[in-house]
Amino acid sequence: MDHLFELGPARLTTCVDVWLHLNGLDAAQAANVLRKHYQIHVKGSNVTPPLQGFEEVKKKRKFYEKLLANTKASGFTTPTPVQRQVLPLLLHHREVLAVAPTGSGKTLAYLLPIIIHAKVAALRSHQGIKALVMSPTRELAEQITRVLLRLVQGLHLSCCLINSAAVVAGTDFSKTDIAVATPLRLSKVAKQTDLSSVRYLILDEADKLFEEGLFKQTDRVIKACSHPRLVVALFSATLPESVEELARSILRDPVRVTVGQRNVPASAVEQRLVYVGQEAGKLMALRDALRSGLRPPVLVFVNSRQRATVLHRDLALEGVRVASISAEQTPAARTDAVDRFREGHIHVLVCTDLMARGIDFINVQTVVNYDFPQSAVDYIHRVGRTGRAHRHGEAITFFEEKDSGQLRRIANLMQSSGMAVPDWMRNLRKEKPHLKQLKHDKRKAQAAATATGAAKQQQLGQDRKRRKPT
Ligand SMILES: Nc1ncnc2c1ncn2[C@@H]1O[C@H](COP(=O)(O)OP(=O)(O)OP(=O)(O)O)[C@@H](O)[C@H]1O
């Protein structure tokens, strides 16, 4: 997977795109060569060929020039693999289930097509919200809106983040062309906001949106988007089989796009496991790592709000420029912590899994799993906060004796993304004597360890099937 981004724009142009031209391949052959090269796997009927460059989306209308210029001005000159395949599919009104590694550019893959759709619809004087993006957290919705606003500059489109401030200010969302929101906020405004004009519904971090806590609200919003030709697209870096089944029940003739291997950490992240003995060893290990040159900005994940507060306090006492962020803080406090971290005033941000998904701190050098992640999916998203775009990143996961049961799963994930992992870790459950050895010889272990729902478905499916086919 290393070359998904690493080849870089210049090499991509010389080695693949020009090669395609020189060899005069027909469209289907060229599509296959491109897909093979970029490790794009597709499943579905009549799949549109991948793009060779952003210029291909340019049409006669003037606004395409402007949009392309904005895209380039934002630093996006060459499409990433997921953008190459998803962009033309959405432009052809195909429903999509896209699974691509963390930091591989999924946001732009859906923003460009929905901007094009919204602009064309606005030029035809269509009223109401034309495209809607749902994301599981407020922070991610804010980030998506920021990217969106950069891309639509000068296009005379109205884009809006539906948050509490906008609701309090009495914003008339019917005058919005593209809206971004969390399912919680959206389900609250769905009653007074007409979503029947929404033609594109994007579910970012889709597997999270289908989880227990968010499912009801997500479902409510999907139902409210009643346009007969609604196009739904789902994006995530992880898609467990069970969620895929549920997701498929709401999609019509979808194309599944997978980039690289499914459900593995991004290969640009160098991952290490560090044995810390017990709880007390964690702070010592983090302090040592910070002293011995752990490069800031550093994102540190813990498993609860309380633990975030305690670690924040402990690090502040040591003179570390630290902030913490968790769901119990006010929106203003959360935004402030994120801004200070982005601007470099804060070197270490302690956070819960609230920040694990989608958040793009482009310069984060290191992710520390201070508390062992509660699932393989959490691990993939957490470590994916570094190593974004073509950058290199480092992820360190602390583990103590009580984490041994979960260790094997994470070790396997690390191995599938190309990391060297000691054999004893991958065989942990089978070879119990190693657990004993771990207890009896902590030092030795430390050296070794430091290495580089059916009812829901039916409900959702039936609601969608009732609509006329596209
Ligand atoms: N075509 C491109 N060229 C260069 N950089 C890009 C391109 N597309 C996106 N990026 C950059 O790559 C980074 C990751 O993009 P994005 O946040 O969309 O990733 P993602 O796939 O949604 O990740 P996650 O699964 O973590 O949400 C961003 O900083 C973005 O600016």
UniProtKB/TrEMBL annotation:
It catalyses: ATP + H2O = ADP + phosphate + H(+). It holds the Pfam family Helicase_C. The keyword Protein transport does not apply. Residues 446-461 have a biased composition (Low complexity). Its EC number is 3.6.4.13. Residues 433-470 are annotated as: Disordered. Keywords: ATP-binding, Helicase, Hydrolase, Nucleotide-binding, RNA-binding. Gene3D superfamilies: P-loop containing nucleotide triphosphate hydrolases (3.40.50.300). InterPro entries: DDX52/Rok1_DEADc, DEAD/DEAH_box_helicase_dom, DEAD_box_RNA_helicase, Helicase_ATP-bd, Helicase_C-like, P-loop_NTPase, RNA-helicase_DEAD-box_CS. Residues 268-429 form the Helicase C-terminal domain. Residues 433-445 have a biased composition (Basic residues). It comes from the Eukaryota. Residues 87-257 form the Helicase ATP-binding domain. It is an enzyme of class 3 (hydrolase). SUPFAM superfamilies: P-loop containing nucleoside triphosphate hydrolases. Belongs to the DEAD box helicase family. DDX52/ROK1 subfamily. PANTHER family: ATP-DEPENDENT RNA HELICASE RHLE-RELATED (PTHR47959), RNA HELICASE (PTHR47959:SF15). This is RNA helicase. It comes from Coccomyxa viridis. The lineage of its organism: Eukaryota, Viridiplantae, Chlorophyta, core chlorophytes, Trebouxiophyceae.
